[in-house]
Amino acid sequence: MNDYEVTPRKRSKCEVKKIPGQTLDFCRDIAAANSRGVSYGVYMGMKHDKEAQDYYEKFGVRMKRRRPK
């Protein structure tokens, strides 16, 4: 093998890039927001609205938001 041949590399099993010091869920949310072309805050609003709608369809009542103490 000479210097011009490229050795095959194994692809990474990680679906998103990991940000040092951050959780994997946070990194996934950022990647999903980037793929949709919206900001992180807009994406989280859409995500919470979808969760609330799924809860309503499942139980027939609106999900109550709890206040932090």
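The record above closes out task 2.4. Task 2.5 opens with a second protein, given below.
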Amino acid sequence: MNEKYLNSAILFARLYGIAETLNPWGYIENEKFIYIIREWTDEFASMENGDILKFFESKFE
């Protein structure tokens, strides 16, 4: 696993935690959470020079 991929996954998990604190969402199982973060990370990693915050925000529009 490369460093950019790992850093992106960690950042998505942190951003999700912040967003969840500001807008309480229902509980999701760990496996589903991991799946979501992995999907987002895979999609973001395939982008060229993407803005991670804009990408994250687009997931909730």
